[in-house]
Specification:
Blueprint: E1 12-15, H1 19-29, E2 33-36, H2 43-48, E3 53-55, H3 59-63, E4 70-73, H4 81-89, E5 93-96, H5 100-116, E6 122-125, H6 128-137, E7 145-152, H7 170-173, H8 183-191, H9 193-206, E8 213-217, E9 223-229, E10 234-238, H10 244-252, H11 267-270, H12 284-294, H13 299-315, H14 323-334, H15 343-363
Parallel strand pairs: 1-2, 2-3, 4-5, 5-6, 7-8
Antiparallel strand pairs: 7-9, 9-10
Helix pairs in contact: 4-5, 5-9, 5-13, 5-15, 9-12, 12-13, 12-14, 13-14, 13-15, 14-15
The chain binds NADP nicotinamide-adenine-dinucleotide phosphate (NAP).
């Protein structure tokens, strides 16, 4: 036990390409094992990490190692979906920041959780909104909950006029007003598609229908999300926008550590907090995500794949910002959904969505 009230050993670290960051972290945390996706069997890597065991097989093999109790998943895309499923089945506590795994494989993740629950499996949210909802739900009965209220900063263009959006650049879109995040999630915040992904994520995490998830714009990103109860009360979780707190609480749960990882919130300094309804004309991608998320077929997976492709086209300067929601709507309108999908159906639909956007962009069918 340290003065923060908990101890935690980093037994393994995984990276995609950023070997420099891995070096830094290995120097600090001295993990027993490292996984390096893009340097398979490289002799120089074997020499450099001679103090570590290098896991060459797969993230799945890493995720189920016996010396790991808590798996923290903050990768992009779907690379961690199968590792999350395997880790849950073997009874691990999985702290999840990654949205795509739940958006595409939500049912499979919940099935894996059910299989591993007797062995101690737990699925804990790290995404700040879901961590907030989770904390508001502690000690509450399921049937006392009326709705979840996810807050949205409004992203980079919240103060723009609708007519100005057609000309915005990727550089401008990547300037999130309150959070420092990777490129994909920052663009998704600017279109508000991210909030649709979060609603679907909340559906799977908290087992609640999407119709009971409300989105409220809140530009300060201080209230991270809320739960409204049947008796009219609302509970909220507040804090400075800093991911260290949701990460810490997922690790220390069910205890709160006696440690403030970020500056304590000074409400008097903030003065006022603002809330408003989302203007759907400004953010048409949100409506596409919510409609897809309400369907019980593969629509959400297809639209999630379409968004990956559409965001990449915008970042490479091939389409204007305002074409992202058009491509998403075109995908949803044309996707032949598979009902009661298996995990493979959902993964295929995700790929279908990416390909459909590539074809629609090539033949410009979405603009007609
Ligand atoms: N960033 C945030 O504040 C935040 C908050 C809430 C939720 N999220 C969610 O968390 C996820 C990540 O978002 P991000 O913005 O943090 O993305 P990011 O900055 O691009 O980071 C992605 C991470 O995934 C790792 N990765 C990629 N491919 C990998 C592979 N094959 N094996 C192992 N690691 C791999 C990358 O490692 P390398 O750099 O070494 O390639 C990098 O560390 C998304 O689902 C996002 O919606 C993020």
């Amino acid at each position: 036990m340290n003065k923060a009230g908990f101890t935690c050993e980093i037994t393994a670290l995984a990276t995609g390409q950023n070997i420099e960051r891995l070096r830094e972290q290995v120097r600090i945390f001295r993990p027993k094992t490292v996984f390096i996706d893009s340097y398979n069997n490289s002799p120089s890597i074997i020499r450099e990490f001679e103090d570590q065991q290098i896991e060459w097989n797969s993230l799945e093999t890493l995720a189920i190692r016996e010396d790991i109790d808590v798996l923290i998943v903050a990768s992009t895309g779907l690379v961690s979906l199968k590792p999350v499923i395997e880790a849950l089945k073997t009874g691990k506590k999985v702290a999840l920041a990654n949205k795509e795994s739940l958006v595409v494989g939500g049912q499979a993740v919940r099935d894996a959780l059910a299989i591993g629950q007797d062995l101690g499996a737990e699925l804990l949210p790290i995404d700040s909104e879901h961590s907030a909802v989770w904390q508001c739900l502690w000690g509450e009965e399921d049937d006392a909950v009326k709705e979840l209220i996810l807050t949205a900063s409004g992203g980079a263009f919240r103060d723009y006029k609708l007519a100005e959006l057609a000309d915005v650049t990727p550089q401008a879109a990547l300037k999130h007003p309150t959070w420092m995040m990777g490129q994909k999630v920052t663009i998704d915040s600017a279109t508000l598609f991210n909030k649709g992904l979060e609603a679907v994520e909340a559906r799977w995490l908290f087992n609640i229908p999407i119709e009971k998830i409300k989105i409220l714009q809140h530009k300060e990103s201080i209230v991270h999300s809320m739960v409204a109860f049947q008796d009219g009360s609302i509970k909220a979780q507040l804090g400075e926008p800093d991911m260290r707190l949701p990460i810490q609480i997922a690790i220390t749960h069910p205890k709160r550590a006696a440690n403030e990882p970020s500056a304590p919130l000074d409400l008097a300094k903030h003065g006022s907090l603002n809330f408003s309804e989302v203007n759907h004309e400004m953010y048409p991608a949100l409506q596409v995500a919510l409609e897809a998320g309400q369907r019980e077929d593969t629509a959400m997976a297809a639209v999630a794949g379409a968004d990956e492709a559409a965001v990449a086209l915008f970042l490479s300067g091939e389409i204007p910002f305002t074409d992202i929601p058009k491509l998403l709507r075109h995908t949803l309108n044309n996707h032949p959904g598979t009902p009661q999908p298996t995990l493979d159906d959902s993964l295929n639909a995700e790929e279908w969505g990416r390909n459909f956007v590539a074809i629609s962009h090539a033949n410009q069918s979405y603009t007609r």
